[in-house]
């Protein structure tokens, strides 16, 4: 028993952590996590389990008071978050790995010793001495992008009527809420990123949902998700997908990442691949992720969009790796 001295690790019988023997609640502080065996969990006494349950109830009550959330609010939010718990941890892990990779040693060019740089053969013949390369840590003004200024990521989400209308067909609205919850949970405390989320529907091409200045927590994340549902339920039918993409890409600075999450209900509004030309901006890393489709419309559409600027993703569990790939591409 750690008696709460090591909260945030694997988790003992009475300490919060991940994968523990029956700790009162989950707490992730970035420590390595080791899954405890079922045999060890069975060794925990009923008295200890009851004490852990009371600790969890007290911690939840205090947390909800801090967030100004009622128990029903928490249940609504947790019903969505619980669907992407594993994906949240995966995305955080992927992004940590991304930072480690950025800190790895690189080839240092124009060195006076080391391995001959094949691109310097002509210089060698002319008597140049700094024709070698060697592995080393970047120095001087060379810095990892993830260690300098925060990376701006804008998510553009489809909260049009079709999301609500066809949810019973393929759960596209549920998948959109899970994706948005995943993004907010994984990035909200990561200072390396500036997160913004905007929505669009038949009434507007730019509905602010999350700004970089907004401090996220479970309470206002629930309001974001509930606002998205309300928009899909009460908006007029119509489509502003192209206008939303144009606005997001046009407002983005050079090198920023814009990810559009939508269904493939575009043919109905006579939207063609040519209309998605803003995705090919050379200045902005813009990508379209389709999470819903009637028939094979989504796959047909993405196959016609060049430069891998569009993907189909029908499972929330596939999003962490996809987002990691898009972030990695934006850093090149």
TrEMBL record:
Feature: compositional bias, Basic and acidic residues: 26-43
Family matches, as Gene3D superfamilies: von Willebrand factor, type A domain (3.40.50.410)
Record domain VWFA: where: 150-331
Ranges of biased composition (kind: Gly residues): 8-23
Domain of life the protein comes from: Eukaryota
CC per GO annotation: cytoplasm
PANTHER family per UniProt: VON WILLEBRAND FACTOR A DOMAIN-CONTAINING PROTEIN 8
Designated name of the protein: VWFA domain-containing protein
Organism whose genome encodes this protein: Thalassiosira oceanica (Marine diatom)
């Amino acid at each position: 028993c750690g008696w709460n001295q090591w909260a945030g690790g694997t988790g003992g019988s009475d300490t919060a952590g991940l994968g523990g023997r029956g700790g009162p609640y989950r707490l992730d502080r970035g420590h390595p996590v080791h899954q405890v065996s079922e045999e060890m969990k069975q060794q925990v006494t009923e008295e200890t389990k009851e004490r852990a349950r009371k600790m969890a109830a007290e911690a939840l009550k205090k947390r909800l008071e801090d967030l100004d959330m009622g128990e029903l609010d928490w249940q609504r939010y947790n019903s969505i978050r619980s669907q992407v718990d594993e994906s949240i941890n995966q995305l955080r892990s992927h992004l940590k790995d991304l930072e480690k990779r950025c800190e790895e040693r690189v080839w240092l060019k124009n060195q006076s010793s080391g391995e001959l740089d094949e691109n310097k053969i002509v210089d060698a013949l002319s008597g140049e001495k700094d024709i070698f390369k060697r592995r080393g840590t970047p120095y001087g003004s060379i810095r990892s992008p993830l260690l300098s200024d925060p990376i701006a990521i804008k998510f553009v989400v489809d909260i049009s009527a079709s999301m609500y209308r066809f949810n019973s067909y393929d759960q596209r609205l549920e998948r959109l809420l899970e994706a948005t919850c995943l993004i907010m949970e994984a990035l909200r405390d990561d200072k390396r990123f500036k997160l913004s989320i905007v929505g669009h529907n038949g009434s507007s091409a730019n509905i602010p949902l999350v700004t970089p200045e907004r401090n996220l927590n479970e309470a206002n994340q629930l309001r974001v998700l509930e606002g998205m549902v309300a928009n899909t339920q009460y908006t007029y039918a119509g489509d502003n997908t192209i206008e939303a993409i144009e606005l997001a890409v046009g407002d983005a600075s050079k090198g920023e990442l814009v990810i559009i999450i939508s269904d493939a209900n575009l043919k109905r509004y006579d939207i063609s691949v040519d209309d998605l030309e803003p995705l090919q901006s050379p200045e902005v890393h813009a990508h379209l992720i389709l999470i819903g489709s009637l028939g094979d419309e989504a796959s047909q559409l993405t196959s016609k969009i060049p430069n891998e600027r569009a993907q189909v993703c029908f499972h929330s569990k596939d999003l962490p790796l996809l987002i990691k790939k898009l972030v990695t591409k934006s850093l090149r």
